[in-house]
Amino acid sequence: MRITILGGGRSGIAAALLAKKHQYQVWVSDAQTIPLQHKQLLQKHLIPYEEHQHSINKILKSDFVIKSPGIYPSSPIVQTLKKAGIPIYSEIEFASRFIPPKQIIAVTGTVGKTTVVTFLAQLYNHIGKTAVACGNIGYPLSQAVLENPNRLFIVEVSSFQLEDTQTFHPHTAIITNLSPHHLDYHGSLSDYLAAKWKITQRQTSEDWFIYNLDCALTVSLLEQWGTKAQCFGFSLHYHPKAHAWLDKEFNLHTAMDKKDKKMPEVKVTGPFKHHALIAGILSQRDEIRRKDIRETLTSFEEYPHRLEVVGVYDQITYVNDSKATTVAATYYALQQFPKPIVWIAGGQFKGQSSDLEKLIPLVKEKVSTLILIGEDNHLMKSTFRPYVSRVIEAKSMYDAVRKARQNAVKGSTVLLSPACASFDRFENYEDRGNRFKAAVEKLCKIV
């Protein structure tokens, strides 16, 4: 069987190597330059390739094509393949065919995917399972399967990857939350949501679907499109349909088969509340003890620039969430911390003023001071000024942290969660986050 891999990036090369191992006739085609180390791998395994072009006639002889998620559905090569009736699959779809559904826990959502995946992998390894975090986190599922197919795969899956699936069937599917995103890629909100919903589309009554009851869009889709899987909802508050929730003291509860099971040993006051709730649901099936959840929460290694606790100084917690470049990501971050929050935000805003208005209820409830740094301060100032005690502008990240420290009281959280892109003042979100951390470390040593 002949396969073309479109794209010579990390996932494409991993898929090519997996295909070669299973005796497929495979080659790689990339319209751009293939990285040198990737070409060396292809040469080592005698896999032919081309770069700087797509040889259409050769590609059209393929039995199916594995497409890089970076290639838009509207691109000419994809349209040509669709017109010719050649199946197009994602790398996730291809790799999943070599492992049984029981070994797959798949996680998707608009925000929060990566930390949930890494947390669950750490949790399952903690209880003695052999688990690996993989997928859309920089470690392709194909590579993980190639290296060791006999383990539990905690897979982050994006809408780009899910769109090109046909048989992808995780035993456990998790949606953290949903909001409009990547509409330039998918073409419409309905197409984006349809791609996300593919995570549960091929599940059966033996499978589990875990979802966020606090996300109205997810709940609406479940009512509209449904799933054959057993459904388990979680909430940050008590909810009559919840199978896991937190009480006012942040204790974790689970309710399976109508039995309320309080987990008083698991108090979740940090930024990983959704992670604990999902673990609480999975504990009813996978012999995860309260002690395991608590210990994993305590030892969890945070993902840089995503709800990263920089430190606690003078009873004030400093959190770097520089990766939050959208309203949805910042909404998620504000949900995770108790009031009062000193919120550092701003930059190049990518949405409409109506998008910012979605944050108003959380800002009104939790934010005491808003510190703005960036190009679009005026828009954020006009939106949130009526709902916070203080709105302050800062000239630099150092100035923002200094002013945050001055306005924070004991028990506060200073949260950098910009809801904006970083390119007006910083190289990227990593640069912005690193400057925040450097400012915190410098200022908080001055007593």
Write structural notes for this entry.
There is one protein chain. The chain has helices spanning 10-21, 36-44, 56-59, 76-84, 91-96, 113-126, 141-147, 159-163, 183-186, 189-201, 216-225, 273-282, 290-299, 327-335, 353-356, 360-366, 377-384, 397-407, 429-443, and strands at residues 2-6, 25-30, 49-51, 64-67, 88-89, 104-108, 131-135, 152-156, 172-175, 208-212, 230-235, 242-246, 251-256, 259-267, 308-313, 316-320, 341-345, 367-372, 390-393, 413-416. Helix content is 37%, strand content 22%. The model has no long low-confidence stretch (mean pLDDT 93). α6 (113-126) crosses α13 (290-299) and α18 (397-407) crosses α19. It is built from 19 helices and 20 strands. By secondary structure, it is of the alpha/beta class. The strands form 3 sheets. Strands 7-8-6-9-10-11-12-13-14 form a 9-stranded mixed sheet, sandwiched between helices. Strands 15-16-20-17-18-19 form a 6-stranded mixed sheet, sandwiched between helices. Strands 3-2-1-4-5 form a 5-stranded parallel sheet. The chain has 3 domains: 2-89, Rossmann fold; 96-299, UDP-N-acetylmuramoyl-L-alanine:D-glutamate ligase (3-Layer(aba) Sandwich), CATH 3.40.1190; 308-443, Mur ligase, C-terminal domain (Protein-Tyrosine Phosphatase, Chain A). α17 (377-384) links the parallel β18 (367-372) and β19 (390-393).
